[in-house]
Structures are given as C-alpha cells and as structure tokens.
Amino acid sequence: MAGKIDTRLKELGINVPQAAAPAANYVPYVQSGNLVFISGQVPFVDGKLTYQGKVGADFTTEEGIACARVCALNIIAQVKAACGGDLDRVVRCVKLGGFVNCTDGFGEQPKVINGASDLMVEVFGDKGRHARFAVGTNALPMNVAVEIDAVFEIN
Quick one: the chain helix, strand, coil %, rounded to 5? Predict the structure, then answer.
C-alpha cells in the first residue's frame, strides 16, 4: 500500500530516482537521533551528470532553478533510503543548504535555490517548509551549477 507521500508524488507526476552512491570518501546520509543529514547532492539524472557550468554564463536563472530541482529530487531519494523506503516517516525538512556555481555579480542565488525549496513544499506540504541558505561560489565539484545538502527530521 502506497503511503501519503508516495501518493502525492504520483499525483504530481514525480518519479523519485534511486539514491546515488557517494562519489568520494563519505556516506550519502547520516542519521543521528531523529535527524538525517543528507550529503550534498548534485544534478545526476539517470546516472549522468547534468548542468555543468556557471549560472549567469552557461545557464540562465531559470535553468539554475531546474538544476536545483534535480538536486532536490536526489535529496528526496536519499531521505527515502534513510527511511527504509517510507517517506511518510518524514516529520519535517529542517534545513537546505544551497550552493550556486555562478559568475561574479550574479545575485539570484535565492531564486535558484527556490527550485529545491518549492519542490520540498510541493511534496511534503507544510512539513517541507525549512530554514535555508543560498550562496554563490566560483566553483563546485565536477563544475556542477548547483549543489544542495539537507537536514530532515524523521520518526
């Protein structure tokens, strides 16, 4: 029987990908008490890296938003793995941390990271509302446009 969140995902036409394996010497998530810390997620789609370059040069703000949404889907995949496949265990998305690989003078990092924030609210409703930061940087691993980490409370 599908849970409430799985039903919601189906209604939204969202397919959660398989949780990606780590790309270096770290684990994709750590649970401490009721908190799950999700390592930074980058825009992998079907096992392939997408959105390599800088927002403000190689990508528009709108494309950056789409990239952040892909990162958020990968975050949901990791929290689903942490919950043994049951997203109804999510009590709340506590915090997102968003990094945008961007050009000097680019100031729309919060708008870009809204791509992830909006998805959390679409999927989890009020439980998806979170604290967050959105910062710009001159480089990210593998030259991705966006990387986002997260903290969730689960039961």
Answer: 35, 30, 30
Close Cβ partners of 102 (under 8 Å, ≥ 6 residues apart): 54, 55, 56, 64, 109, 136, 137
Strand, coil or helix: what is 73?
helix
**8 A C-beta contact, residue 137 and residue 100:** yes
Query: Does residue 1 surpass a pLDDT of 90?
Result: no
Question: Is 98 in contact with 148 (CB distance < 8 Å)?
Answer: yes
Look-up: residue for tokens 């009721």?
A: 34
DSSP assignment letter at 25: S
Burial code (b: 16+ CB inside 10 Å, e: under 16) for 12-43 equals eeeebeebbeeeeeeebbeeeeeebbbbbbbb
pTM of the model: 0.97
pLDDT at 2: 67
Identify the CA nearest to 73 among candidates 38, 30, 125, 24: 38
Query: Which residue ranges form the domains of the chain, and what is each CATH number?
Result: 4-17+27-154 (3.30.1330.40)
For the record, the structure tokens of 42 come out as 């980058």
Coil vs helix vs strand at 39: strand
